[in-house]
């Protein structure tokens, strides 16, 4: 629970300061704030996932935009979840594959404890992993994106601008969709 609270404080602090410039590998345009982003999901799948391809935002803004609309950034807790997300990208996003051939933000992060990856959306440590090259490249960043074409995970600088994948939250006390 302390990790979840720490991560939440980090997200709020990073959002408030937002002095960090995106790295050269990201888009150079200034990202919009969640209040400026109209949540009109590109696609919804199985009433669980919503793919936000209407704005490229940093990881913190992606989480804030999802949360402002009853979602959280998606967690990939198992191979089953990974397959469902891949099916979602392939069946619903096939006409937008050019948008998916890059990292798409998920809730994965090691911001609270370097090298200890957790899903911000549910506070769980990674039990299933699908990193490109079998492990994260720690010099790259502390936020996790999934490539929409290959389904491989990439750790990225949290200030990079990417599209994002939200997951619907369940009622308090309930678990996320399975």
Overview of the molecule:
The chain has four helices and eight strands. It has 178 residues and is of the alpha+beta class. 37% of the residues are buried. The model is unreliable at 1-29, 34-39 and 173-178 (pLDDT under 50). The protein has one domain (2-168): Mannose-Binding Protein A, subunit A (Mannose-Binding Protein A, Chain A), CATH 3.10.100. The radius of gyration is 15 Å and the shape is globular. It has helices at 2-17, 59-67, 79-92, 97-100, and strands at 43-45, 49-57, 71-73, 103-109, 118-119, 143-147, 153-156, 162-168. Residues 58-167 form the C-type lectin domain. Keywords: Disulfide bond, Signal. It comes from Drosophila willistoni.
Helical segment count: 4
**Portion of residues in helices?**
10-25%
Number of domains: 1
**Rg for CA atoms:** 15 Å
Strand content: 15-25%
Question: What do we call the CATH topology?
Answer: Mannose-Binding Protein A, Chain A
Secondary-structure element series? HEEHEHHEEEEE
Based on secondary structure, the structural category is alpha+beta
From the spread of the alpha carbons, the general shape counts as globular
Named at the architecture level, the CATH assignment is Roll
- Averaged pLDDT, please? 73
Spatial strand arrangement across the major sheet = 1-2-8-3
Main CATH class: Alpha Beta
Name of the CATH superfamily: Mannose-Binding Protein A, subunit A
Largest sheet: 4 strands, antiparallel
Report the count of strand segments. Answer: 8
